[in-house]
Amino acid sequence: MIEIKNIRFSYDREIVKDVSFSVQKGKVLGIVGKSGGGKSSLLKIIGGYLTADSGEVHFKGKKLKRPVEILVPGYKEISLVHQDFGLDLYHTVRENIKEKVLHLPLKFQNQLIQEMMDLLDLWTIEKQNAIDLSGGEQQRLSLARALVSETELILLDEPFVHLDTPMRRKVIHYLESLKEIRGTSFIIVTHNGEEVLSLCDEVIYLKNGQIKRKGVPERFYDSPKSIEEAEFFGPINSVWIEGKRKLFRPNQFCLNHDANQSLELTFQKARKSGAYWSNYFKTGRGEDVLLFTFEPFKTDIKIYV
């Protein structure tokens, strides 16, 4: 559906460095990396709000015009939810959403507006101007505007950062529905890889404007290439065993002897973490180790990793 070819972009330094990838119809791509690593700039280039120094964006086989070549920034086929929200600040919540569906018959306008108001819990602020909303409320409104547009590709820049846990789950479930029912494609930029593991079909790890790794989410979680990469996708243990650095997730261990490397651990504490227990230990070198179990540990143990 969309293909990014050799994108480069710079301010006083090079922000995006020769980035290329593609996203097919009905797929979700997550782009993960540190703040300031070029993620948001790349998304604005794809959305038609920032002009790249070089490279091309192709949508459904057609090369898109550069933002400097079009009268109004942005592409009608692509919606972008960015961190400054892009709202009409002196219009009400309802008016902000309605602006995106004015091309539809009135009956369908009202149906879609109501769907968004329900999904993102906007009824209590329906008549407030966008400028008077909190950060979380503005983010929910920005999401509503993007989703109600029913574009084929939606770009989301840190879309969950201001949402509480129940709302985040609700929105993720809705995005999954759009993907399955409408074939909507998404590119989600975040510095929190845990949020996108279950949602994405593919993940890109971006570091200093360059793609360092691309693959399915499971590989990023189960087989990280470095501790820096690993930390974006959940807790990671980093210990020395037999003179080598070993990385393993809190669930990647066993208690029965096998051919794996062993590790003696001194028990510190156990804490309930929802459906499982978080068990904290130290190695003989003083390294911290976290293990997930369904029943808590209470003593020193020996594990195999």
Describe the structure in your own words:
The protein is globular. It is an alpha/beta fold and 305 residues long. The protein has a six-stranded mixed sheet, with helices on both faces. 23% of the residues lie in helices and 32% in strands. The longest helix has 17 residues, at 165-181. The protein has helices at residues 39-47, 93-98, 106-119, 135-148, 165-181, 217-222, 227-230, and strands spanning 2-10, 14-23, 28-32, 54-59, 62-63, 78-81, 153-157, 185-190, 202-207, 210-215, 237-241, 244-248, 262-273, 276-282, 288-293, 301-304. α3 runs antiparallel to α4. The protein has seven helices and 16 strands.
So what's the overall shape?
Answer: globular
Helix content: 10-25%
Total strands: 16
The structural class is alpha/beta
Average per-residue pLDDT, rounded, comes to 91
Summarize the entry for a quick read:
The chain is built from seven helices and 16 strands.
Features:
305 residues, alpha/beta, 6-stranded mixed sheet, 4-stranded antiparallel sheet, 16 strands
Set down the secondary structure blueprint.
Blueprint: E1 2-10, E2 14-23, E3 28-32, H1 39-47, E4 54-59, E5 62-63, E6 78-81, H2 93-98, H3 106-119, H4 135-148, E7 153-157, H5 165-181, E8 185-190, E9 202-207, E10 210-215, H6 217-222, H7 227-230, E11 237-241, E12 244-248, E13 262-273, E14 276-282, E15 288-293, E16 301-304
Parallel strand pairs: 3-8, 3-9, 6-7, 7-8
Antiparallel strand pairs: 1-2, 1-4, 4-5, 9-10, 11-12, 13-14, 13-16, 14-15
Helix pairs in contact: 3-4
